[in-house]
């Protein structure tokens, strides 16, 4: 007789050294909420990965153009990768390369200040109070975040939230506030898979009581405030409500066991001082979180703009000192090749991550994990400090209707490129070619992820060319 796993005691888990590790994700124990309308249990996942500093874009007449341009040569299905991007060839049938896309509000923004807008498309001005909007990942997390233990996983190499216009996180909430990002693989692992606090239920009950009292008092107080104070107070109330949602969600999951994974792999923390291993570990965190259905939404900011922070040292993986300096040194002989080697390293690790998803059968559905995961990999800079023609890779999502194996080139025959040798920077030059709105890609992604929407960040329209 077949086992009925739905009748397993889901509170049974392995115990030891004050921690708890639980049963793995089984197809028969997948939450009913994960099932698609036609009955297939295919969770739909989203991961957005960002790298800073732009990519090699030598002029067509430059000897480095043939080998070290980041964008392929050609278009459609007839294109040729360069040495910078040929690592995508083994997974090309699961990948689409995009050029000629950007956010209109960021096209005249200096490349040191554009990462904040990558997933928000917000109009951020420096001459007024900084204000962002909700990011793509959090829009989707609001839709499906209640179906998993964690609504989303937010990571960055530099951690924290940084400063306005120099964020160290890709994720922003409904109020446009940055969501703190975690940088330690071990802490991420412990958060996802190791339960240490046996008193969590009691503390959650106390937190709920405190929040109830705070909200009651807040409603009374708001009525006494002048109009100019109410907007700021409403932001505070929104934060309290977000905390209330998190507490309620934690109460629902506190007695559910954590998935079983190999804890020995992450007994010691890994730092960016070991750049290749560190990057692999951070991608592994997304892989494990997706495989165990701990979350279906993740962001990872590989580095912040402007060369500040520990992420700048990732270039040591390929024999250089600081990553950002490579963009400035493209004016010297061999500069394009050096920047290309660093970008190739980042591409290699993304491909390794995508390949691992591709080689893993969907734990509780059909196809592979990559077929049910939509990956956006890219930057808000192309040439030196230029916030146009974003270098973008869209991967996975075949079970969501995405068609791959193509290079969709909307940048035109002569995109702005070349080394910066002083004077007016590329972002200050006249716009001679109108990019496509990246929000159209975002709308398509959200629609295929199952959301009913026709717009993102106030812009309407999708991009059906991405679909089968």
Polypeptide structure, described:
By secondary structure, the chain is an alpha/beta fold. It has two domains: 40-194 and 273-466, Alkaline Phosphatase, subunit A (3-Layer(aba) Sandwich); 198-257. 28% of the residues lie in helices and 13% in strands. The protein has nine helices and 17 strands. The strands form six sheets. The protein has a seven-stranded mixed beta sheet with strand order 8-11-3-12-13-6-14, with helices on both faces. A two-stranded antiparallel ribbon has the order 1-2. Strands 4-5 form a two-stranded antiparallel ribbon. Strand 9 and strand 10 (166-167) form a beta hairpin. Helix 3 runs parallel beside helix 6, helix 4 packs antiparallel against helix 5 and helix 6 packs parallel to helix 8 (335-358). It starts with 12 loop residues before the first strand and ends in an 8-residue tail after the last strand. Residues 1-39 have low confidence and may be disordered. It comes from Thalassoglobus neptunius. Keywords: Signal. Pfam families: HXXSHH. InterPro entries: DUF1552, TAT_signal. Residues 1-34 form the signal peptide.
Overview features:
Alkaline Phosphatase, subunit A; 13% strand; seven-stranded mixed sheet; alpha/beta; 468 residues; globular; disordered N terminus
Instruction: Give the N-to-C terminal Cα separation.
Output: 42 Å
At the first level of CATH, what is the class of the largest domain? Alpha Beta
Give the C-alpha Rg.
Answer: 23 Å
The secondary-structure class comes to: alpha/beta
Q: Going across the biggest sheet, name each strand in turn.
A: 8-11-3-12-13-6-14
Could you say which overall geometry the principal axes of the C-alpha atoms support?
globular
Overall tally of structural domains:
2
CATH architecture descriptor text of the largest domain: 3-Layer(aba) Sandwich
Mean pLDDT: 84
In percent, how much strand structure appears in the residues? 5-15%
Provide the helix percentage.
25-40%
- As residue ranges, the low-confidence spans are 1-39
Taken in chain order, the helices and strands follow as: EEEHEEEEHEEEHHHHEHHEEEEHEE
The total count of helices amounts to: 9
DSSP E strands, number = 17
What is the CATH topology classification name of the largest domain? Answer: Alkaline Phosphatase, subunit A
| Sheet of most strands | 7 strands, mixed
Keywords: Signal
Protein name: DUF1552 domain-containing protein
Pfam families: HXXSHH
Signal peptide: 1-34
